[in-house]
Specification:
By secondary structure, this protein is an alpha/beta fold. Helices cover 33% and strands 18% of the residues. The protein has a single domain, classed as Rossmann fold. The two termini are 32 Å apart.
């Protein structure tokens, strides 16, 4: 089972998994007429935070990607309870089925800084990030006390999104690189916040890293990133090279949530299982083809 099936990671992961596995997709849509997935995929359309796990089919692996974004939680704080309730349901479901769990956490748990390892101090700067830490800790507790195999993946700024994001009961959000690429293609200015850096990870790399975690035993935590710190202010010139034309920019104020200057993650630990294939230029080239 893959939860958050309609999101950026889920909608790219499921078709690849379906080549070799029976896959159940779970998400909560207003209408499946605007689905991001092939019709042939077995689909459960339900609010995960309120689902009866006894009515779900048996599985041997759960990949829990469902989450309400940092922006939506900032706007509607009660949504953080939906994230936590969903995680509790999934852990209960995994234990009942004796299923392995792969859980998507976030690099945002570290706060601001560079070269974070999995053992670095955590410094959440938002309700969203704080809840991710609580969810991680509960997964560890259940792994240690119930024998559940659990792998926690701290994704770093995934990009490559072409999904419908307004067809969910808990609406999705556009990441910064989606905003940049869509604005550039429409000849609109790219909104730049001065002095910030991020570690951007292309969606194909994220999918491959997630699949590489299947079958791991015990409790594991890995960063999923490139390990490369990129200045936001440098991205317009990369996009210009990708598109072959000039783009417009405008400087905007810092946002109030997750207000950090720099972030990059160390990927030495995961490198024995997976290594990224795409640098930012190549990833943006592939992304531009998807959007055009």
């Amino acid at each position: 089972m893959v939860t958050g099936a309609e999101g950026l990671v889920g909608s790219n992961l499921i078709p690849k998994l379906a080549k070799d596995h029976e896959v159940i997709a779970l998400d909560y849509l207003v209408s499946r007429d605007r689905s991001n997935l092939p019709e042939k995929i077995y689909y459960i359309n339900h609010d995960l935070s309120k689902i009866n796990i006894d009515e779900l089919p048996e599985v041997d692996l759960v990949i829990h990607l469902a989450t309400i974004s940092i922006e939506r939680i900032s706007e509607t704080p009660i949504y953080k309870e939906v994230n936590l309730s969903s995680m509790l349901k999934i852990i209960e479901y995994s234990i009942k089925n004796k299923a392995d769990l792969i859980f998507s956490s976030s690099g945002s748990v570290y706060g601001s800084g560079t070269n974070f390892t999995e053992s670095s101090m955590l410094n959440p700067l938002s309700d969203y990030s704080s809840m991710k830490i609580i969810e991680e800790n509960h997964a560890r507790f259940c792994s240690e006390n119930y024998g559940m195999n659990a792998t926690i993946l701290r994704y770093s700024n995934c990009y490559g999104d072409t999904t419908y994001i307004k067809n969910k009961f808990y609406p999705g959000k556009k990441g910064i690189l989606r905003i940049f690429m869509e604005n550039a293609l429409k000849n609109k200015p790219l909104p730049i916040i001065r002095g910030q850096t991020r570690d951007f990870t292309y969606i194909d790399d994220v999918v491959d890293a997630t699949i590489a975690m299947i079958g791991l035993e015990g409790i594991n935590t890995f960063n999923v990133a490139t390990g490369v710190e990129t200045s936001i202010e440098s991205i317009p010139s990369i996009i210009e090279g990708v598109l072959g034309r000039k783009v417009k920019t405008q400087f905007v104020p810092q946002r109030k949530i997750d207000n950090l200057k720099r972030r990059s993650l160390n990927i030495e630990k995961i490198s024995k299982h997976w290594k990224p294939k795409y640098d930012l230029k190549k990833g943006l080239e592939l992304y531009a083809r998807k959007l055009q």
